[in-house]
From TrEMBL, chains A, B:
PROSITE patterns, alphabetized: HTH_LACI_2 (PS50932)
Alphabetized Pfam families for the sequence: LacI, Peripla_BP_3
Residues forming coiled coils: none
Biological source species: Nocardiopsis flavescens
InterPro entries: HTH_LacI, LacI/GalR-like_sensor, Lambda_DNA-bd_dom_sf, Peripla_BP_I
Protein name: LacI family transcriptional regulator
Amino acid sequence: MDSPRRTTIYDVAREAGVAASTVSRALNNPRRVNPATRDHIVAVAERLGYRPDPLATALQSGHKATIAMLVPDITNPHFFGTIRGAEKRASEAGLTFILANTEESADNERNRIERLSRSVDGFVLAASRMEEETTRELARDYNLVLVNRQVRGLPSAVVDNGAGSRQVVEHLASLGHRSLVYLSGPHRSWPAAQRWRALRAAAEAHGMAARRLGPFPPRAEGGGVAADAGLGAGATALVAHNDLLAIGMLRRLAERGVSVPGQVSVVGYDDIFGADLCVPALTTVAGPQEEAGRAAVELLTRKGSLSRSQPAPQQVVLPSHLVIRRSTGPAAP
Amino acid sequence: MDSPRRTTIYDVAREAGVAASTVSRALNNPRRVNPATRDHIVAVAERLGYRPDPLATALQSGHKATIAMLVPDITNPHFFGTIRGAEKRASEAGLTFILANTEESADNERNRIERLSRSVDGFVLAASRMEEETTRELARDYNLVLVNRQVRGLPSAVVDNGAGSRQVVEHLASLGHRSLVYLSGPHRSWPAAQRWRALRAAAEAHGMAARRLGPFPPRAEGGGVAADAGLGAGATALVAHNDLLAIGMLRRLAERGVSVPGQVSVVGYDDIFGADLCVPALTTVAGPQEEAGRAAVELLTRKGSLSRSQPAPQQVVLPSHLVIRRSTGPAAP
DNA sequence: CAACATTTGGCAATCGCTTGCCATGGCACG
DNA sequence: CGTGCCATGGCAAGCGATTGCCAAATGTTG
């Protein structure tokens, strides 16, 4: 900053009557220096209010004590939990936390990574939009951990929508629904694929018909078209790619005078803030997003320290579950 | 990161047949070097994929190209807009954006500032919880810009809830309300004070009675007590410190079978995501939060460059306005 | 008490870049 | 043709830490 001048390791050294190197050791590698001198140095450092300069440290040692998280859209409430979890864990680990918005663009993502690479120890990529191949390639040069996306060979923390999706189907089946429509998210969305896979499999197992429509923009604005499309498909149950889309659909359905859940049931994913506020309150698949954020940072830090001894990257999978609210009900006859 | 070795300014220098200093100048201070050499150097740098190391640059020049934003509670949707605005502007200005959660604690805030001070050019403090005096003190050593808080002598960007608050009163008065209760936010909250001041003044001007209750935790969980307290005070209009609190109150009122807006009207502040989803949709004071975030970063960057010539710190004030939805209606007789 | 091992602390190089100062060369001018 | 000025580029000194290597001091052992 612009303050007069911060106290450096040299100030401490002079004041303590030792060499700078000794100060450095006393602080970082305490057993390398005599307890008496160490205590003295620590005391002096304390008194002078010495704080190591992270930049200088990083420049020399390569250890930046900083990580960056890249998010496709900070605005999307879906990411809040993950961001929060990651920030928290980072802060606990004494890491500086950089947040960057990539605006849903793989190019942006890549650029940000390259731009930031010198400043951080690693990246948490939330719902990355990049191609698998590109990701893998970048992972050779940089420390990457994925959240809510899996790529073979790369560490990741994901919420498994499989369990939740199966519960969706069971729930719907038990209410007498014979068919469902999945209103899909972005074409290249990993969770979208995962969700559809699970839904279809479960539906088949329950003798239910399942169709996929879309892709739709995973925002409330996409709900209009999605609702109309879903209605057109003639299903009694509409499963939206995420809550935002579901909420948009709810609006559209209300506009069209279609009763939910009387005529049609609606399900979302993510259990975002607001999912229980809308009318009717949304039945949705919830997952421990915050936990996923934490886990990702955890993986990142762990990775750094054991890089040699641990060739197999970790893949953390966290379970999801269905939260039943008012937007689902018995199938219309 | 851990890649083999990045190309440095020396690599470029050697390859281009000039001194490192010339490369540096060619890139940062183009007019200081002959156009021909410059072009050549730039070309070589390009070819070698040279990227300056931000850490080394910062260490030497003191220019970190990084700012940090401190937020009391990342989880609170109220801040999303501000965060987004700030991040966006920072990114546009080529600044790295650090986000830190201070968990509603002034001590945390202070510590974070001190911890990060060496790594950043300045701080954006959103809804700071620190005492005026402490803040001013810190501002002597560090570059600070406040958001949604004003402290004399410090630059800030705030959403003026005055206009919105007056509109609230006018709106309620026109619906026949003769009294209102303000369910206050945290004791030391600057917006809380500001809101109450404006409400009271406007109420007086309209011959309306106004009382303040609280403080209440500015979260949905606080809504229960707040609603009960408000009801107990016997007012026909409840103005909550923010939407979260208002939503919590709505829930409690529904629980108690109190009709909104039939028996009592409810107003919030911030127009957060979800305010239009709840039942009844919330009448609330909206402000350009994203704009405030942008403005704050703007002030921060501007400040740096003109530090000498501009002694008077800027205070940006952005207007708010009332958004009328369903939670307000004619006063019960 | 000599010979050797172990601590302990200092010197100096280094990380990658910026920048003050100086040396050089070309040019215009008197 | 001599002088002075300006444009241009290089040298080298930092910025604030870490760390390999070495020297001195201390302790251990036969």
